[in-house]
Design a protein that fits this description.
Layout: H1 6-33, H2 35-57, H3 63-84, H4 86-104
Helix pairs in contact: 1-2, 1-3, 2-3
Length: about 110
């Protein structure tokens, strides 16, 4: 597998940093607005992403609109991780990642999952 470029590595590091910030802010949002409100917002953000993707198919939306909705869904998904359990969601992600690797004919290196 080719090594990621330095620019991609920098982008991934920035993403990790922003995920960490959003995770911390997510805890504050859950405390301030409550689980039910944030759960409903998660559903709405997922729906908005679906609409943006469908609009992109019909050239009614551009990639920037899709990116905006992806960001909203990621922020809300991190809040749901807090609610449904960090360890449990991490285990689910590891399982799904392993399954994807198997479907792609790849193996995960020890310590990466």
């Amino acid at each position: 597998m080719p090594k990621p470029s330095e620019a991609r590595t920098q982008s991934l590091m920035r993403l990790q940093s922003l995920v960490s910030i959003a995770f911390e802010d997510g805890q504050l949002a859950l405390e301030r607005f409550g689980f039910e409100a944030q759960r409903q917002l998660m559903v709405e953000e997922c729906a908005e992403l679906i609409v943006a993707l469908k609009h992109e198919d019909r050239r009614k939306a551009d990639e920037d609109a899709v990116r905006e909705e992806i960001a909203d869904v990621l922020i809300m998904a991190l809040q749901m991780v807090l609610v449904y359990g960090v360890d449990e969601c991490t285990d689910a992600l590891a399982s799904k990642t392993t399954r994807l690797h198997e479907r792609l004919g790849r193996r995960l290196e020890e310590g990466n999952a």
